Protein 1
Amino acid sequence: MYDQPNFLVPRQAENQMQRKMRFGILGTGRITRRLIADLQSTDQTEVTSIASRERSRAKWCADQHGIPNPVEGYHELIKRDDVDAVYIALPPSLHHPLSLATAEHNKHLLCEKPLALSHHQALEIQNAFHNKRWLDATGWLHHPRTDQFSKWVADGSLGEVSHLSAALSFHQPFQSQDHRLSRELGGGCLLDLGWYVFGFSRFFAGKKPKAIYADSLIQKGVPQRLNAMMWFDNDVTATVSCGYDAATRKWFEVAGSVASLICDDFTRPWHDRPTRCWIHAASGQVQSYSFEGNQERNMIKTFVSENALTDFQSQAIDTALIIDAASKSIETGEKIKLGVLEE
Ligand SMILES: NC(=O)c1ccc[n+]([C@@H]2O[C@H](COP(=O)([O-])OP(=O)(O)OC[C@H]3O[C@@H](n4cnc5c(N)ncnc54)[C@H](OP(=O)(O)O)[C@@H]3O)[C@@H](O)[C@H]2O)c1
């Protein structure tokens, strides 16, 4: 069991004050600079320190965002007494070692996607957190819209779901040092974008696939484009595509016997546009929906709340297994049965 929030500090018998969960952040990159505002504007959390490999960079970022303690070195931050939870926003190869270090120092963990480089590493992370919370920062799972997706599938609005498809891409002239281009740092679209499209399939199928076939275009040592097909129980199938060589897409379709659910912004709503999706009926009639809510702030609230995180954790562990299987399929050119990988 998780240890329940030690954030409830009794003040007076009739008046309890909630102490905020104190976050320390590892890394000063793009996603950090986005999430800081959400951590600072959520009632239950605050940011007490931020670490960089370089002290000057930590100080620059701390000064910009009003964070009291800039720290040089990731391990130095993890050890700090004024940190309850560590947010890891670093290249994928650093997620596993620093997650384990976070567990060793008895802190909670919010780790950027992909949780780890492999299913084995993901399981090690899960096993390391006996009584502390851990969550991968896959924001779309926490948007209120995602609950509505589940309701539509469960209440039969789509009929019987038979096929899932997703496409995710962006066209990015990377800088040469970008971790997405480095094999050693866990770069490439298989881990970076595959986390979303395989996670999407696992989410709507409600379980991992029985088998997968994947192919990838590898350039500069990392997968730049990936296509995969998956087979689930009950004859549900999925096809997904992702890569760095097409204009931005973040689409999915959940095809049912009565209607299809279509979304063109599932990983993150388009800037300055309402969060949206459509249900297309067989007649061609289209029902449009839009939603309020901030997925990152909801994710943070879920992370600090007393709710069990096990559904999200299983989703992450299964996604890591699917990525392993896709990787093996790319390597061997064969369709891979997931059960064999787990044995
Ligand atoms: N959830 C989301 O929506 C989302 C969106 C984008 C990215 N992400 C994930 O967040 C993580 C970070 O991505 P990002 O886009 O923020 O990357 P980024 O802008 O390149 O920042 C990465 C940070 O990692 C640190 N770092 C440590 N060793 C490094 C190395 N050898 N090479 C490069 N950087 C190194 C750097 O911090 P210091 O120099 O300060 O130490 C750097 O600022 C990735 O896992 C990515 O998949 C998630």
Protein 2
Amino acid sequence: MKLYNTMSGKEENFAQKTGPVRMYVCGITPYSACHLGHAMSAITFDVLRRYLEFSGFEVIHVQNFTDIDDKIIDRALKNQKGYREIVEPLINEYLYDMDSLNVKRAHIYPLASEAIPKMIQVIQKLIDKESAYYSNGDVYFKVASHKYYGALSRRSLSNMIAGARVKISVDKTHPMDFALWKAAKPGEPFWDSPWGPGRPGWHIECTALCLSHLGEKIDIHGGGQDLVFPHHENEIAQSEAYTGKRPFSRFWLHNGLLNLGTDKMSKSIGNLIGVSEAIDKFGADELRLYFLSSHYRSPLSYSEELITPMKRALERLRNCLRIESPAIGQELDITEFEDRFTEAMNEDLNTPKAVASLFDLVHAINRGKEAGKAIGEAQSRLRILGEVLGFTFREVRNEMIPSLESLKQFSSQINTLLKSEGHLELSIWFDANTPMDDHNRIIDNLLLVRSDLRKLKSFDMADKIRVQLGEIGINLEDTPNKTSWRFST
Ligand SMILES: [Zn+2]
């Protein structure tokens, strides 16, 4: 399996000799609701993890929450709240949104605020090693002390100074030196330290959390491309200076960013689309398919016109999984499609190609069914491959899907009819066994009622159910053994 390593600028073979793959992904700063840019990054690393696991690796996935940050402190001060009151509901909302997107939860979600003692220990050792220095209540990392500073972002210190408007600070010996510890300002949360009351800088957090949860050398470090510099460059410098070991991470993976128009989607610009808003509008699988239809390292432009066709595409997949397989017949051979899928994923997670192989497999299954082949095994392989990409295949809100309200109304009409036609037992059974908040259960139970009506030779009523379901967008397909259903498209 090849993965593009930002450090080398090349695709490299990913192998793991012993033990689990230790993967650290930079998480969010919870100061406002998460948006689709976060969802895209989370889905990228979710697919990486799912594919590693599918390929036989064990993965330990750690993702932090930056719960100490200038913006959080600002919001807390403005709203006269403690910083925890700001971050806790937002962390819960993030986890809820990611669950809705079927993103596997990380094994550990550490908080920056929980790792202050570790950060203090790391900073103290960096001072002892003369990689950091105290200045006026702050502590700075000495970038010139790290021989490889700039290797990840391919910049030299002299270019960085020329290219950036660097504020010259009297407290720093070099303009690119960055804060490991900041002296407390009035009204801010603070922690005691050997350098006086204060709080950690952002970068040191991820070093301390990696060291605490994954060890001195990790296998994969991930994040958005906007984190390459300075965040990840600084993380490498601190971590390697502290441990004396290189490389801190064997692989550095970065996802491209989501744009709205020509701008990156970001809180500071304010051009955000909320995750739950988008899930309600398009569906979780549909959003995922939209993201995976583009390679994870490419930038992607948010466009409703491009997401809308995903509904139809997903419906093709779902319908294919619902087809009844002929009981006899030669099993459809799908090796070619499975091979294409893994080849694509082995090419630095080429999800557009992997997705294309799934749709070709759908086509082959549909044709196989027409040719009288057994397709059950092919369908279950399709589901497994789809799940590697994180699809749930669950039905979602969609304008082609009848509303729950119309289904409920329809069910009560049928129930009244059952009673008036003397099918009291069926009516009682349907009432007792049908949760009215579940599309699939309502439809499945209506089909069971219809099948019993046919056995009782009430063909008129059975037919009525078929016709009226068709009118609200649910088509039935009768085979000798079973009736299956699909949403009309
Ligand atoms: Zn980080």
